[in-house]
Design brief:
Blueprint lengths: L4 E5 L10 H15 L7 E4 L4 E4 L5 H8 L5 E10 L3 H13 L5 E8 L8 H15 L3 E2 L6 E8 L2 E13 L8 E5 L5 H11 L3 E8 L6 H14 L6 E7 L1 H10 L5 H19 L4 E3 L12 H8 L6 E2 L7 H10 L3 H4 L6 H4 L11 H8 L4 H10 L2 E5 L1
Parallel strand pairs: 5-6, 5-7, 9-10, 9-12, 10-11, 12-13
Antiparallel strand pairs: 1-3, 1-4, 2-3, 4-8, 7-8, 11-14
Helix pairs in contact: 3-4, 7-8, 8-9, 8-14
The structure holds adenosine-5'-triphosphate and magnesium ion.
Amino acid sequence: MKYTSIMVRFGELSTKGKNKKDFIRMLADNIRHALKEYPELTYDVLYDHIYVNLNDLDYEPIVNILKDISGIQALSLVVKIASDIEVIKNTALELIKQEKGRTFKVTCKRGNKRFPIVSDDIIRMVAPVILKNTNLKVDVHQPDIKLSIEVRDEGTYVFTKTILASGGYPIGVAGKVMMMLSGGIDSPVASYLLMKRGVILECIHFASPPYTSEAVIDKLKDILKQLNKFQYSIKLHIVPFTKIQTKIYEVSDESYAITIMRRMMYRLAEKLADKHKCLAVANGESIGQVASQTLDSMRVIEEVVKIPVIRPVCVLDKLEIIKIAKQIKTYEISIRPFEDCCTIFAPKNPKTKPRLHEVEFFEKKFDYESLIDEAIANVNTITIS
Ligand code: ATP
Ligand code: MG
């Protein structure tokens, strides 16, 4: 028996009360966009589910795309039929015959109150048909197969298969964040985790040509193309960083260069975040991963900004981050060799416990404010979609 539609379930969304309508509209937009290559599909956007009607298309590629869309809790493969008890019985039997297992349970919801048979009676009429025509036994506690029947105004849906999806909130419901994207493994994972919470990202990258090459930008574009699966259009702001960086190495002790460089990055990220109405900045820092990511360093670095700084992967170790990177298919791109501005100027003995007054001493030696303004004025923005 062919499935006619995919029932999209929201889960977490259901608790959001009066914002629910907006959430559903946003999710429906995201779904339509992700499936734009399939013009044959039609959609029913209802208050408690969205139905993607297959119109004879194969369900598998569609399910694979839907599984990654943030805000979808689960997907059920359904057969839509007329609300007629004989048709319901036959469909239930045919569907359950396709399943493997020894026990089953029938559940029923009757949204259409004009349908003359109440849920319990529908179950009492359907279950005997299955018992009589198969070897299956009833188990109401731990059935191998759950057969669900939903009688709604527009028809009746029967299904046995439910697939878990990515959960989270629809992209767009939580506002915008400016993500510091380096081309390494961590920041794409941090990006994905934020998108799953419904956050829209804009990305900022600090480029130091000629020390860093154009190949880094190509790499970032490839990473963002993978992330387009979760957010269909992503802005990448490329900030010219060479002048600031060379100046830092002129004025500061080598062991403080990374701390100061990261303070400059934070200042730039905050400026750009404000300019583009982002409510926070984010990055791929993980506690203790390198010298600039000790809590002592973070304290001295974050001190330069007012805006919240979100570190989605701060508690994950590298192996956990790599696992997610592989799952979202950014890992292979991230490990391509490249020259990052951090690796090129990497000092031999970076401070793990930088002192604020020392940092300030070095920073006073140059007019970084005007260099920051100049860099912001020369940002090159591209959109990946
Ligand atoms: P990643 O694997 O994401 O590059 P990392 O382990 O290499 O992280 P660092 O290079 O120390 O860590 O950088 C920490 C974070 O700072 C990165 O995850 C990223 O968010 C940000 N960052 C570092 N370099 C840049 C850059 N050139 N442009 C934008 N953000 C950067
Ligand atoms: Mg890096």
